[in-house]
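User: Show me a protein chain along with its predicted structure.
Assistant: Here is one chain, sequence first, then structure tokens.
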Amino acid sequence: MNNLHVPTNRPVIIDVSSKGRHPQLQHPGAAGEAGHHSGQLVSIWFEATQTGHFELACAQLCGLGHYRMRGDVLIDTPEEFAKWQAETRRRRRRARRRRARREEVALMFRSETTR
């Protein structure tokens, strides 16, 4: 799991799946749990009404890696969410450009060494 940013007062749908386990997710501020069978895709929806930083945890003891099955839900105002989203897009564009440059240099190096 990772961090999940969502805006307030807007419906959010999350598609959850797993390999080899039957996960149960629980959010302390939400009523109930969401679970499903291994390999099955389940959609969970919610609408956050207040901002905050909450922990998302696996609600079932499922093996040795259980303690690592945690994530953070960061609920932002619509303005904070838009700012986070814009910054994330900028970082991804920069990362794609760096990756493309590395691939270009590697291709040039391979073509130089095969002559």
